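To whoever is on call:

I kicked off a structure prediction for a single chain this morning and the downstream step that reads the tokens threw a length-mismatch warning. I double-checked the sequence; it's 305 residues and nothing unusual in it as far as I can see. Pasting both halves so you can look.
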Amino acid sequence: MTRQFRASAEKYEYFESDCSLPGEHDPEWVLRAAHAEQRAQPVEDPLPGRELVFDLYKDDKTDKIFIPHFFKQLFESGIRRDDPRLAKVFERVRVMEKLDVDNPFESDHLYLDKETFKECVGSSIGVIAKALKRQLVIPDWTAFCKTMGDIFEQVRPAHAGSVATYIPQLARTDPGYWAMSICTVDGQRKSFGDSNQPFCLQSVSKPFTYAMVHSELGADELHSYVGQEPSGRLFNDICLDHDKKPHNPLINAGAIIVSSLALQQFKKFGSSSGVIGFNNAVFLSERETADRNYALSYYMREHKM
């Protein structure tokens, strides 16, 4: 018995025959046959997790998935509504179902069949499945948040210390503000207290700026401008290492260099979820008291940094 094929306008068909076709021993003919056989095989879902998640959360009566309940389960794992990894999912649901609301989890009567759900979820199924299966770094997010909330309230009565005064504008900050925000390596997030109150990052911005530039330029290029060792000096000391570079990105000299490399990356960072702004009053106040940072900049320019 010899496996042969015949081509029609619509498809390739296979049949068994006792005879041989004239070209079946031709290499090109064999290659065409192999390609046709591959096309005849069932196509596997490139993202199989989508069907599994759908089957676990579908409504048995309708054989569809109730989107508000589905998202509720997702959010309880610590994934927030403004998570950029879910932005495309929300947009696909909104467009495909012709919804007027920006967030599909606000619709009370939204059900999706399997194929629509798979298309909407797309490549975001990785983080979704991991969250729903409680495989994120903190599996019991609800219990964790309760513990952190208790600690937050226990510390609230503490009023020792004072606000920063080295910059005049910072001295005007209300000392009564109290907030705490948590973000895990898997993107689970929770905030307490006055977390929506804008505040000035100051030197807290240094590790974020370093991480951003490190990701964009790579370690080799970045550290050709700034070192990565402790300086053993004050954070604003006017000094460089033996290679005439700032000792590391977390002292003022290093932060100035890293920021100069980050001008384009700031635009990307500012367009992510959350609110990142610019406080002109603090900037002007900083500028009036920045003699030492100006001196650092001129010192580094003298050494061709």
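Update from on-call: the warning came from a stale cache, not from the record. Cleared it. Sanity check on the structure: The radius of gyration is 29 Å.
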